[in-house]
Amino acid sequence: MPQNAYALGIYYNRKMFKAAGLNPDKPPTTWEEFRGYAKQLKSSSVAGFAETSTSNQGGWHFTNWMYTTGGDMQSSDGKQALFASDKGISVLQLLKQMRFTDQSMTKQQLFTQADTLQLLATNKVAMVVMAPDQLNTLKTQYQANLEDFGIGPMPQNGGNAALTGGNIFVFNPKASQDVIKAAFDYVIYSNFDLSVIEDSYAAQSASGQVVGAPTNILFMGDFQKKLDALNAKYANVPLQNYKPFTDAQLTLRAEPRNQTQKMYSALDSVVQSILTNASADPQKLLQQCAQQFQQVLDQSSGS
């Protein structure tokens, strides 16, 4: 039973955009614009962009960038590693050029999402890749003024897509029908009853938690319209700052299906090398990684 969903996008500092002569209502929508913005935003104390590369998050974000090119990480049956492609190489080349040619990225590397969020919150970086649900952490943990931040869609290079994920409820098929029905009824009531949702939004807003962060639409028709109305009623964030993200018409692509976290872990070292070694070879690194990960896929399928 789906509960919620997200898509990765670009968080950015609107004040830094203005100071650099960039329109904060128009974040970059292409790789070329993104690279140019990062160069324009960098200064002696601020990096234009920071990216994750550890705790499996280098591979996670690599997959997201791959989707923006229209590339694939695995075959549709999950049996073949496909990421050592020209499109995969182009992702690494973009990051390498930004890091070493443009010097628009942070010199320090090996970040997790928590690290890049802290850099954004403390005005040390202008742009990061993030999902909208991190707005709450930005506000509650760092007491950031959300008026200063915007969210835009992932910059594209031919793919018109971004990585999506979310949360679901799973019911044990071995449980009795009465237990499954009780569990299902509880999920429906606690998560999809509009009066319960309104009470939750009101309580969250009153306690200072973020209400109004953009989420992907899971539903259609009247129910979604009522959800949107409740979200707007109790919103305590600058909804207009997220309009570039919510108005974007991107295809949302799920994470690869087979041995996903092992694949992300393997790709972490590739992304780390690209971001720390100016002489790293994107093609060689990806080919070696794909060959090694293919063995994992072969073992999982018993071939």
TrEMBL record:
InterPro entries: Bact_solute-bd_prot1, SBP. Pfam families: SBP_bac_1. This is ABC transporter substrate-binding protein.
